[in-house]
Amino acid sequence: MENKEEIVKRLKELLVVTRAGEGILDLVLDKKQENVTIVYQNGHFKKVNIEAGSGLAIIKDIASRL
Known about the structure:
Layout: H1 4-15, E1 24-29, E2 35-40, E3 45-49, H2 55-64
């Protein structure tokens, strides 16, 4: 099984150094590990469902919502 917490943590580190992710403040994985909330510095946020995703699918799902 994929370590969703580790994937989300490392993905945040990578995204914030890209132009597409420069406004990201945080990626927050919910307790059930079904959704990630992309939190932006301007106060906006987006929820991404990652419930059934593999590690690569999680990365693709989050990146597609930027």
